[in-house]
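User: Here's a protein and a ligand (zinc ion). What would the complex look like?
Assistant: Let me lay out the input and then the predicted complex.
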Amino acid sequence: MTRPAPLSTAFLALTVSTLVVLTAAAGSLSPAPGSSTTASTGVAAESSPPSDPLASLLAGAWPAERRQEVLDKTLTVRLAPDLSALTAEERQVVDELLAVGEIMQRLYEDANHHQAAEVLAWLAAAPEEGPDAAAVEELRTLYRLFEGPIATTLDNRREPFVSVDPPVPGRNVYPWGIEREELEAFLAAHPERRDEILGERTLVRRATAENLAADRAGFAASPALRQLHPGLAERLTELAAVPDPAMLYAVPYALARAADLAEAQRRLFRAADAVEDDDPEFARYRLNRGRDLLSNDYESGDASWVTGRFGRLNAQIGSYETYDDALYGVKAFPSLSLLVRDEAATAELVRALGGIQEIEDALPYEAHKRVRADIPVGVYEVVADFGQARGTNTATILPNDPLFSRRYGRTILLRGNLMTHPELFAIADRSWRAAVAPAFADALAPEGGFHRTLWHEIGHYLGVDRTADGRPLDQALQGWADALEEMKADLVSLFAHHRLHAAGAIGSERLAAVRASGILRTLQDNRPRADQPYQTMQLAQLNYFLDRGLLTVEGDERLVLHPELYDATATDLLRTVLALQAAGDPERAAAFFARWTGWTDELHEPLAARLREAQGPRYRLVRYGALGE
Ligand SMILES: [Zn+2]
């Protein structure tokens, strides 16, 4: 794919060409995008341009005031690391990976909402000039900001900003609008189907003739799938013989999105050709990952990603994180991150990392494990993020799969140009000052956030990674798995810094900065929704810290920190979280979160209001120089 032209329309120009390519690849299949039970083989369900895109777009769209309300609260962050040192071959790899990223972006939007492709087609076809041009441009910005047609409102509700179906917990990776009760009943009646229905990279469908025809057509779009998924074609044929909308089936993502993923695979192979000699391990990773996208099994790519010694470039490619699945918390959503390593910062970090095993051995739980000493960690600059990875996330640790991470380890990618972004730190500092008593106002420092985040990621490496009886945490704890895992990582970071300080490995200033960052992390500018694992576990920490007196509230509702209680409080909460993970009982986890996520009008609401007031921009729209933005 050619490098997109500058200006914001580049995103749409690219979209249109992607739609055309994908539509062509998907052949004659073009299920009606508005139909809620329809499977689509490609993200480009729309095969012909909408009859009146402008009318479709504006009918039922948010009025100007509502659009403006959100756009006024949006900070644009532009990331544009210097790529001038890359070789011509590396540039070629960058171009191919950006093109794969655009595919992942469309797949992600489609996984979130079954009408995303339709809205994108309206946006692409709407005129650039005329009386409605400004409104159209604002809707394009909103689509870009929210990666689809569903906005998060200022009071934290999810709601469409154009006329599409309201959001549902299972997004578009389960039958549209299905309720948990129906899925539970199906699993109880068909226990042998549980693993595939709750598979990380499968889509769940109703066994209608239309869905089955669309899925079976994937074998034509990508013939290798027949060999890679033995028995699957026969099973779909069997289901198609007696279509039954009450019957559910799971289809591997590789087949459900066959044309798109086959195109991604071809581009990954081409990118591998480009640097075969200069960066052979990175090339092999892309070959493996290209095949993984077809086999739906990420082991070979994950192994070569995590253990590979790469040149300057690195990339997260595929479906990993399950945060967007608000129904079961098990489905991974598509993503791609293209990164270039900061060599000096990485070398310094690797030197500073030591004694990880000692931290693991000190954690407050029984079943300690061996942790590999050479954790692959690097400081990177984000070139561009796509799909689930798009945003201002400051660090990543992958893969999540307990078997693969046990075998190969996990790679930690610190996203330096976001961690140290001056405008983002300024927002954090304003929030902090609005929340705490004057004596603590100067306690926040960028290094606190950096090191707390680093050890949060290492924290995912440590502690419980399966239930005591050997079940994967995601499947055992279902919707609570992410919140508990993230909470463990937060608390391991605090725990580790106290140990490192006690051992003389870090100074008091570093500890104080991490402690402040650890408190800031828990402050909420809105009451979290149940489907927000990060915010939920942060609120639980805040309430626990208040309960234990680590935080107290002064007369004017300013928080006062009692550092002498910090270590014991964080350690006790960590012990509880590790026990909940080991038990793997979703009801116990639910009771824990019910106990600790209270929200009061006396404390939480005024604090949230002060944070909202202080932080200024509520939303962050990230633009990428590499995409011509
Ligand atoms: Zn995490």
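Summary: The longest helix spans residues 88-112.
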